[in-house]
Amino acid sequence: MDKEKQKGLIKIVEQVQAIIDEKNIQVGEKLPSERFLSETLQVGRSSIREALRALELLGVIHTRRGEGTFLSDMYQHQLFDLIGSFLIRNDSQLDEINEVKWMIEHYCEENSDIETNSKESLVTSNNNQIMYIIWKILSQYSDRFEKGTSKEG
């Protein structure tokens, strides 16, 4: 794919993301039709299909034949492990992930009024969505790669 076509694809993907945000589409909810996206973004349906395929490959969306396209829980996508295997190359990186995860949990313990044994409830109670997302990603990588899938370093 040449650079200009790639830039165009990325622009369409970003515009689709903006529509998802504007319409406040949540995980499991249906995206607007290809026709709507094509007309709204003023690009051909083949360009929309290409952008949707890219988003599907990334695990952002999934398509159900005859039903439409839906927003996915990307943390459950198989690419999550694949990306992690490229990011986590040795045990020291896994230790660093666990350290940052511990820092978030410790911060939440220090700044929370709730008492719970659930780390997820503790981090959620902080009402910081970005912190929760980071913690969730770190937790998933930590859980998956502590089970022996990380590379020896």
From TrEMBL:
Q: Which InterPro entries match?
A: Bact_HTH_transcr_reg (IPR050679), Tscrpt_reg_HTH_GntR (IPR000524), WH-like_DNA-bd_sf (IPR036388), WH_DNA-bd_sf (IPR036390)
Occurrences of domain HTH gntR-type (ranges): 6-74
Q: Which CDD domains match?
A: WHTH_GntR
Q: Which domain of life, per UniProt? A: Bacteria
Q: Which Gene3D superfamilies match?
A: Winged helix-like DNA-binding domain superfamily/Winged helix DNA-binding domain
Ordered alphabetically, the record's keywords are:
DNA-binding, Transcription, Transcription regulation
* Keyword set includes Oxidoreductase: no
Q: Give the record's GO biological process terms.
A: negative regulation of DNA-templated transcription
Q: Which PROSITE patterns match?
A: HTH_GNTR (PS50949)
Molecular function via GO: DNA binding; DNA-binding transcription factor activity
- Write out the transmembrane intervals: none
PANTHER family associated with the record: GNTR-FAMILY TRANSCRIPTIONAL REGULATOR (PTHR44846:SF17), MANNOSYL-D-GLYCERATE TRANSPORT/METABOLISM SYSTEM REPRESSOR MNGR-RELATED (PTHR44846)
Write the protein's name: GntR family transcriptional regulator
Q: What is the lineage of its organism?
A: Bacteria, Bacillati, Bacillota, Bacilli, Bacillales
Gene, per the UniProt record: lutR_4
